[in-house]
């Protein structure tokens, strides 16, 4: 009866809290390392989090604006692409002969939300789990006329106003309704089975907890709006995914843990309506909107951590490194291979994160033998060790509680 109750509760939380989403380059939702003991193998975990980003890592240890990962904004190229698709270039004729009209486009992403995960032990080796998050996200762009434009066009204040008007006209002609975005919704839903084994006092370790996870990523998350240049997806942008993961957690001595995980994610191919560049304009300002067949690349992730549960009156700590690599998506049905190659190159990315955290064993404040509750606060920071590229530098701060039972 107790297991039936847990299954019902699992279904309830799954659909009403509608994550380990390692294949979203904007939002760092990585695999949570759950605490398990020989006697207590189930977990409920929830936290409030904030994320923010103002820059991106564009490769070669250099920074750019967030949406530079889609390409640099050049109004001259946008005007030429509008002409190529049969629309009017809003630029004045004397400005159309310029070599380039690059704008600096600072942007930011701000996110607040609630993350929820649960994993229940059904038998000695079998577990079932779910993870997702509800969040509020806002992102925006600001367009600054570069010194290159000012000098080449000899713009005074009136000329700058006129150029900005023409830039907005180009945006309207592209069918883009806004360059600021706000959305509330859920991430993709992560549902998985875990086959694991816990053994005590083996190979000189106090405890060995190892397992294999097989999961599905249900594409229920908010999707990118192709008519809003600042929008981002909350998950895999409508693509269903499958993943496999191997994790190992080693208690080397009382309350001292080392471990890690490795994961591979595959999203299924699908035809989607998307914005693609006609010429050299950035992808989120592509002049063409059409149905495109997408064959997503694979995503590989790995992480290693060290954690102490109780080094001073219930206080503990966590240090963790995570690296995620997404290989190129493919667009085999696009006839213009130059455009296809640009899209494929822009879709490849590598993320690195270092996490530091504090946790508190609440047994020092409350007395219970049935549950092991832990409070924690974590900071996830993007780092550059092995070549992060084509990713926003998104920071995450989370405050939560995990209950082991």
Distance between the termini: 16 Å
The proportion of strand residues reads over 45%
**Biggest sheet overview:** 12 strands, antiparallel, barrel
Which overall shape is indicated by the principal axes computed on the Cα atoms?
elongated
Find the count of extended strands (DSSP E, 2+ residues). Answer: 20
Low-confidence stretches: 1-19
Number of domains: 1
SSE pattern, N- to C-terminal: HEEEHHEEEEHHEEEEEEEEEHEEEE
The CATH homologous superfamily corresponds to: monomeric porin ompg
Q: Briefly, what is this?
A:
The chain is of the alpha+beta class and 405 residues long.
What would you note in describing this structure?
The structure is a single chain. Strands 1-5-6-9-10-11-12-15-16-17-18-20 form a twelve-stranded antiparallel β-barrel. The protein has a three-stranded antiparallel sheet with strand order 3-2-19, with no helix packed on it. A two-stranded antiparallel sheet has the order 4-7. It has helices spanning 2-16, 75-84, 93-96, 147-153, 157-173, 337-347, and strands at residues 43-53, 56-59, 62-64, 103-104, 107-121, 126-141, 144-145, 180-186, 189-202, 205-218, 241-253, 256-267, 270-276, 288-294, 299-312, 315-326, 349-361, 372-382, 391-392, 395-404. It has one domain (2-404): Porin. The chain is an alpha+beta fold and 405 residues long. The two termini are 16 Å apart.
């Amino acid at each position: 009866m107790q297991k039936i109750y847990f299954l019902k509760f699992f279904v309830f939380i799954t659909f009403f809290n509608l994550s380990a989403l390692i294949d979203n380059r904007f939002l760092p939702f990585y695999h949570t390392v759950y605490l398990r003991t020989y006697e207590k193998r189930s977990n409920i975990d929830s936290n409030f989090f904030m994320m923010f980003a103002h820059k991106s890592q564009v490769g070669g240890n250099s920074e750019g604006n967030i949406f530079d990962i889609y390409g640099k904004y050049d109004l001259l190229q946008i005007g030429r692409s509008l002409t190529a698709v049969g629309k009017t270039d809003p630029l004045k004729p004397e400005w159309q002969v310029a070599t380039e009209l690059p704008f600096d486009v600072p942007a930011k992403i701000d996110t607040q939300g609630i993350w929820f995960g649960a994993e229940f032990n059904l038998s000695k080796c079998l577990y079932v789990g779910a993870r997702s998050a509800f969040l509020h996200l806002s992102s925006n762009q600001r367009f600054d006329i570069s010194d290159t434009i000012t000098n080449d066009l000899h713009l005074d204040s009136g000329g700058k106003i006129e150029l900005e008007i023409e830039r907005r006209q180009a945006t309207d002609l592209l069918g883009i309704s806004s360059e600021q975005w706000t959305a509330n919704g859920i991430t993709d839903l992560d549902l998985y089975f875990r086959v694991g084994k816990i053994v005590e006092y083996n190979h000189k370790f106090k405890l060995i907890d190892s397992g294999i996870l097989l999961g599905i990523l249900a594409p229920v998350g908010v999707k990118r709006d192709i008519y809003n240049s600042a929008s981002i997806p909350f998950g895999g942008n409508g693509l269903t995914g499958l993943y496999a993961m191997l994790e190992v957690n080693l208690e080397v001595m009382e309350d001292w843990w080392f471990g890690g995980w490795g994961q591979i994610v595959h999203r299924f191919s699908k035809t989607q309506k998307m914005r693609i560049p006609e010429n050299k304009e950035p992808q989120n300002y592509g002049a063409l909107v059409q149905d495109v067949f997408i064959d997503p690349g694979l995503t590989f992730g790995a992480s290693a951590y060290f954690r102490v549960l109780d080094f001073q009156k219930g206080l503990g700590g966590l240090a963790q490194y995570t690296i995620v690599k997404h290989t190129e998506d493919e667009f085999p049905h696009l006839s213009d291979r130059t455009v296809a190659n640009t899209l494929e190159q822009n879709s490849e990315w590598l993320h690195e994160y270092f996490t530091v955290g504090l946790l508190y064993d609440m047994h020092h404040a409350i007395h219970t033998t049935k549950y092991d509750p832990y409070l924690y606060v974590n900071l996830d920071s993007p780092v550059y060790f092995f070549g992060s590229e084509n990713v926003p530098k998104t920071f995450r701060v989370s405050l939560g509680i995990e209950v082991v039972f």
